[in-house]
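This section describes the prediction task in plain terms. A model, or a person checking by hand, is given the sequence of a single protein chain and must write out its three-dimensional structure as a string of tokens. No templates, partner chains or ligands are provided. The sample shown here is typical of the held-out split.
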Amino acid sequence: MKKPTKADERAKMRPVFFDPTSHRLTIVSVLFFAFIAFVLVWAFSFSKSLFDVHLPLLPGPPETMAPTQYDPSRSDMQASPKTPPEARVEIPGARITRFPPAPVATEQPVEIHAFIPFWSIQALQSAQERIDDIDVLLPELFAVDPEQARIVELTAPHAGELRLFVDFNRESKHLLPVVRLSGIDNVRWNTWLTSDAQRSAVAMSAAGLVAQGGFDGLCFDVTGAPRNRVDDVIEFLTAAREALADTGGESCLVASLFDPLWDTPQSSDLADRLIVLGFQTPGPFSPPGPLAPQDAVDAKLLEVLDRFGADKVVVGLGGLGVSWTSGNPVPEEIGFFDLTTNASLFGATVRLDPYSLNTTASYTDAKGRLHQMWVLDAVTAHNTLKRLDGRPTRGFAVWPLGSEDPAVWTLFDGHPGEGVPSASA
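The expected answer:
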């Protein structure tokens, strides 16, 4: 038998899974750690070099304000003048979010009024958001109760919150609560207007409210008054103005621009402040159509301004819309976003009527009913302000809050007296 050699003995001692190339792992590990060490050394050297660099000093004095703070004395921060863009008239495209400032009067401060309907929580929320832009608050708090011949407080689920908002801003804002003369249910006019005794009782009730509530006065909304009762309305407003004057309160009249009340000889003496609503609210069985035809509004508004003093007239800018539905004789009041939302849902085109310059859209719902919508938006308001051409007024009123086109507020942002092209151009 052959005797085993030393090589055979060493082969027997090797592990079963022995890899003759295992020494390569040692070499790779050494190279890897050497590379990591090189990277660390390079990173340290590069960082140190950044701190050792000496930058040249810049000419001029050192900065004493934040880089974003504007310094008008520095010529290098003077901005080049920009020409305000023209307002759009095409509605189907991108929505207008900001308008050029319309011309307003410079001879006296322009007061921004805001009407808050008692039933609208959206109106209250809009007033809270825009309170810094508002000078005169017009919350609808009261109505005439024909049964008792006195003014009573209107109720709503959020009435307490509305009163808290009014009380909180009592000292900082001019406060003229609105009285709805049409009554709580908006239909019983004749039951108290025809009686001298009841008219006098309601006027005295108004004076008592101002004295008790600490208001600056009251606004009487005669919107919807029967045309055959104009003389009775005049009698009441005259009595109410005298009663409020005795308590140091201000009287305010609210009526549509197309109300026959403005054509009476006594209209200039009916109140201390005249809020002229530049639109009309259609009633039952009225045909669909624009709420403020631009030519008619311009002509009538200039006539009113020529007749009354600029210190008395407040121009009311409509912030509402109306929808007529086939089969329903009573039109429904809507807001700006009601129109845009329904137009989007039903694929309707929102357009500017070329004749009235009012915004409109129509669609057919799933039940086959035709809806015709007309709204007063920032385009309508801009054209109205442009037509005034800087004529002095007591101010402007957004009527009502809660349903207005948000872009309306940008009309009051500019510098007084800046002229811009009309949105109809």
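For orientation: The chain is about 30% helix and 20% strand.
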